[in-house]
């Protein structure tokens, strides 16, 4: 049986591991942390990723755990809608809409799909030999026919494969995230833009509200009280933003700088090693596609590797990982760039530029009511490779 070692137990690593196991691979997922922490944030799973999760056999479970109805779209800081759509319209067009859920819940589902006995926590990788498929860890060496680098935006695996390639760069924005009890509030499903600022609100299962915000700040900026900073920036925005911030637990607000891949990698593989998720294509969160693309990566990689594992001796022959790169590099580069374009629009601070931006979005939405969906058609209409998961 062909053997795979996955470095990283996040969304991309678990999805790749689960997909490879369904393809008949013997899989070990290595995670440096001693436990999969329930990070207090939500994430979007759009129609394209739901189709990929169907390949893993967990798509319907995700839909059941995270069903939200109603209007969703983009607003101004005063609450006026700039453009919007509904779940029903998206579902009719793509066979799915977008669901939002707690990140920890998705990880739990993916760990079940992988099989928890295949996950090794508290294991640190020190070196990867791409030609031999050798992974050195603090618990001993592992040999594999395929090594998957899913070790995130600061990926040491990526640096080992492409040491001369530029590292991800700071996007210029800091992001805050948190989960807040609904507390009887009427919660729309929207993202609102101001002058260089963004605030998103989404109701999740269990009457929990996922909130996130961004602002233009120097990298590394830290505040003594992040909730107080959020209230200072967004306390006069439309309802229910001020009330949600007042109800938030300051200790559970997460803040991090946002980085992106400015120059696409020439390939997502070298030797016996393939990269998935942020290790391959870090993007700003503006399209809500970071986790979605990582899930796609895992399914597509397993599709090509699965075909290869049926070759002589079950090993990974030449061409399988090249086919994976060919399928993923161009698509993800486009999505990284489109997300960055939205980020740049959201960063505008000049009042005239902001006014023109908002007027343009509103006017375009009136001329084309399905503007939101049409602009995402190439992303959301993706389907897994024929035969994937069989």
How would you describe this structure to a colleague?
With 390 residues, the protein is α/β, with parallel strands linked by helices. The protein has a single domain (3-168, 261-380), classed as FAD/NAD(P)-binding domain. The chain is built from 14 helices and 18 strands. The strands form 4 sheets. Strands 5-4-13-14-15-12-16 form a 7-stranded mixed sheet, with helices on both faces. It has a 6-stranded mixed sheet with strand order 7-2-1-11-18-17. Strand 13 and strand 14 (198-204) form a beta hairpin. Helix 2 runs parallel beside helix 10. The longest helix is centred in the last third of the chain and has 27 residues, at 320-346. The relative contact order is 0.18.
Features:
FAD/NAD(P)-binding domain; seven-stranded mixed β-sheet; FAD binding
Helix and strand layout, with pairings?
Layout: E1 3-7, H1 11-22, E2 26-30, E3 42-45, H2 47-55, H3 59-65, E4 71-76, E5 81-86, H4 87-94, E6 99-102, H5 103-114, E7 119-120, E8 125-129, E9 134-137, E10 140-143, E11 146-149, H6 156-161, E12 169-181, E13 189-193, E14 198-204, E15 208-216, H7 226-234, H8 241-247, E16 254-260, E17 269-270, E18 273-275, H9 278-281, H10 290-309, H11 320-346, H12 351-367, H13 371-375, H14 377-380
Parallel strand pairs: 1-2, 1-11, 2-7, 4-13, 11-18
Antiparallel strand pairs: 3-6, 4-5, 8-9, 9-10, 12-15, 12-16, 13-14, 14-15, 17-18
């Amino acid at each position: 049986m062909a053997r795979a070692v996955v470095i990283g137990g996040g969304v991309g690593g678990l999805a790749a591991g689960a997909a490879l196991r369904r393809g008949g691979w013997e899989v070990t997922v290595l995670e440096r942390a001693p436990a999969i922490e329930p990070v207090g944030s939500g994430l979007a799973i759009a129609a394209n990723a739901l189709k990929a999760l169907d390949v893993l056999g967990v798509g319907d479970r995700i839909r059941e755990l995270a069903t939200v109805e109603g209007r969703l779209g983009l607003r101004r800081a005063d609450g006026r809608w700039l453009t919007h759509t509904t779940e029903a319209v998206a579902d009719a067009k793509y066979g799915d809409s977008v669901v939002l859920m707690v990140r920890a819940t998705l990880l739990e589902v993916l760990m079940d799909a992988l099989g928890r006995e295949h996950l090794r926590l508290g294991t640190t990788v020190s070196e990867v030999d791409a030609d031999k498929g050798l992974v050195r860890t603090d618990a001993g060496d592992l040999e594999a026919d395929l090594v998957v680098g899913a070790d995130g935006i600061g990926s040491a695996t990526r640096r080992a494969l492409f040491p001369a390639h530029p590292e991800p760069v700071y996007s210029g924005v800091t992001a805050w995230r948190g989960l807040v009890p609904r507390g009887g509030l009427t919660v729309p499903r929207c993202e609102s833009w101001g002058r260089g600022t963004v605030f998103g609100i989404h109701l999740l299962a269990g009457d929990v509200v996922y909130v996130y915000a961004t602002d233009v700040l120097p990298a590394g900026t830290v505040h003594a009280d992040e909730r107080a900073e959020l209230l200072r920036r967004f306390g006069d925005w439309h309802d229910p933003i001020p009330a949600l911030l007042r109800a938030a637990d300051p200790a559970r607000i997460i803040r991090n700088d946002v980085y992106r891949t400015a120059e696409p990698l020439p390939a997502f593989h070298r030797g016996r090693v393939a990269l998935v998720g942020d290790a391959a294509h870090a993007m700003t969160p503006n399209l809500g596609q970071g986790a979605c693309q990582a899930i796609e990566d895992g399914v597509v990689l397993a599709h090509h590797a699965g075909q290869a594992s049926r070759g002589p001796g079950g090993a990974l022959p030449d061409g399988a990982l090249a086919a994976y790169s060919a399928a993923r590099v161009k698509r993800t580069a486009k999505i990284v760039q489109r997300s960055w374009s939205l980020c740049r629009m959201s960063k505008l601070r000049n009042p005239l530029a902001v006014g023109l931006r908002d007027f343009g979005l509103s006017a375009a939405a009136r001329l084309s009511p399905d503007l939101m969906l049409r602009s995402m058609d190439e992303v959301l209409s993706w389907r897994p490779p024929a035969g994937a998961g069989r």
